[in-house]
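[Structure tokenization] protein backbone as discrete codes

[Encoding] learned vocabulary of local backbone shapes

[Begin record] amino acids and matching fold tokens:

___
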Amino acid sequence: MGKNVAIAGVTGAVGQEFLKILSERDFPIDSLRVLASQRSKGKKIEFKGKEYTVEVLSNDSFDNIDIALFSAGAGRSKEFAPAAVEAGAVVVDNSSAFRMDPQVPLVVPEINPEAIGQHKGIIANPNCSTIIGIVPVWPLHKANPVKRMVVSTYQAASGAGMAAMLELEQQAREILDGKEPTCNVLQYQLAFNVFSHNSALDKDGYNLEEVKMVKETRKIFNCPDIAITCTCIRVPVLRAHCESINLEFTDPITPQQVTELLSMSPGVSVIDDRANNRFPMPIDAAGKDDCFVGRIRQDLSIPDERGINFWVAGDQLRKGAALNAVQIAEKLL
């Protein structure tokens, strides 16, 4: 049986990915309402051969809607998600607005699908870097509890939205033409450059992205004691984030055991070809659903073979955002 679906933030990068994934996965839709800000009002959107007109997101947008997929920013989620719930919809929200609310489940379907049943109208989608990092960590943690996790992220422009992706392309052209690069969306030049993630720093010097990864992982794993530290960096890649992950386990574990576990894990693909020095790259992950894992090796600095290093690449717009939300919506069916 089909559902009446609304997409809030349909004209953004994740909103466009929602449409693509709903179509690809043949999500059963009876009616579709496409919502965005005032500046997108009246735009035409095509979905499965039909044309839809973008309406302005408001408190009155959700009559007869069953599932509302939100990717319109935390401010709009806080403003309009309660109205959607009041109208009878279940909201799957891709912003940071409700992730750490104890009343709101924070869900990665490969990890904690049972949490979906605890919702009170809103289900939160985790941060993109959190999802891409922990999908491969979870099956290892279940087999051998992780005591400590050290993560360095290499985050694509897509994480800052469509405007940042377009700006990266523009900067590359400008620099190659000998011009000064335009920096309107991101504070610093991203083309041919790398810089610390563009989110606010706390008093301890951690940026918001790093704090999100720590808190969200603990909540999703239901493991408040796991030690986690992160360094989040923006790199000049259009889409698909990469992460270097170092894990310290409770008991000994070998790279072979890790590879075997990951090869059987949902949402994970292993690319680990040492002979050809071929491991996951953003171009492997872009447009794909899985998180790709490679460079699986023993951490020789941790005694008793309790340490493992590996590398992950995952599409920030798909598994890191829209796909995860649609998978949650599928579970709601």
